[in-house]
Design the sequence.
């Protein structure tokens, strides 16, 4: 294998279903175990300010019970920094967060938020946590991420997934160029948001992207296929796209 690609499974929406009724079921930690058994290389969870899906104890249990890296998505707030420093996940992915949005809209503005991030990031790095910034596929945002000391960026694939036809091709080219730029300046490059069985292939084929984080679609498919089959199929599509491109 020359350049395999990791799959991080985001289990947030198992918690969304649990929270619809209260109680403890379905348990996102059980989903994480099953996703790992089916080939996930890591688990991603986004602790939102309003705790609308995963909650603090889910993060603690994931950290204690899963044997693959935990990617902790969080806003750049003091509260989240404190939690990250206590839980010590493998990595944090810093995302923008608006209370009223349904999901993360757009990437973090690493240029506009440079001053705040330059104070926010160092304690995380000092604690040995890898820092990733969830940003738009823009070279200037990547340059800012690099100069802030982030080791990783995650490129937002939401618009690529939302577009069709030529507009999607334009978005794909933007991601391709940005991923190449990330590699050139020494940033590990991830991608995610909105990816499905239909949209994952062209992104998985981009050699300089080494990890995808996928949640909502996989949890939805799990209703029909079971989470293990959904993860296995996604893994297979990623590997096939990589193989066709000569990267595996
Ligand atoms: N990456 C980041 C940074 C995200 O915020 C999300 C959504 O929580 C995802 C990946 C996964 O997106 P989706 O649930 O649409 O697959």
Sequence:
């Amino acid at each position: 294998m020359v350049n395999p690609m990791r799959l991080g499974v985001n289990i947030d929406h198992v918690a969304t279903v649990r929270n619809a009724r209260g109680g403890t079921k379905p348990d996102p930690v059980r989903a994480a175990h099953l996703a790992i058994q089916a080939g996930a290389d890591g688990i991603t969870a986004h602790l939102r300010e309003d705790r609308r899906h995963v909650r603090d104890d889910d993060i603690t249990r994931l950290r204690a019970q899963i044997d693959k890296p935990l990617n902790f998505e969080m806003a750049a707030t003091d509260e989240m920094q404190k939690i990250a420093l206590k839980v010590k996940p493998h990595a944090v992915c810093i995302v923008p967060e608006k209370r009223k949005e349904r999901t993360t809209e757009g990437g973090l503005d690493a240029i506009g938020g440079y001053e705040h991030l330059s104070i926010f990031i160092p304690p995380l790095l000092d604690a040995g946590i890898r820092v990733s910034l969830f940003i738009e596929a823009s070279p200037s945002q990547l340059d800012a991420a690099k100069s802030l000391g982030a080791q990783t960026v995650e490129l937002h694939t939401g618009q690529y997934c939302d577009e069709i036809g030529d507009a999607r091709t334009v978005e794909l080219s933007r991601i391709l160029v940005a991923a190449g730029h990330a590699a050139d300046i020494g940033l590990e490059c991830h991608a995610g948001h909105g990816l499905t069985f239909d949209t994952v292939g062209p992104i998985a084929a981009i050699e300089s992207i080494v990890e995808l984080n996928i949640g909502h679609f996989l949890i939805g498919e799990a209703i029909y296929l079971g989470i293990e089959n959904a993860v296995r199929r996604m893994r297979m599509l990623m590997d096939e796209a990589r193989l066709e491109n000569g990267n595996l």
Summary: The mean pLDDT is 95. The longest strand covers residues 130-135.
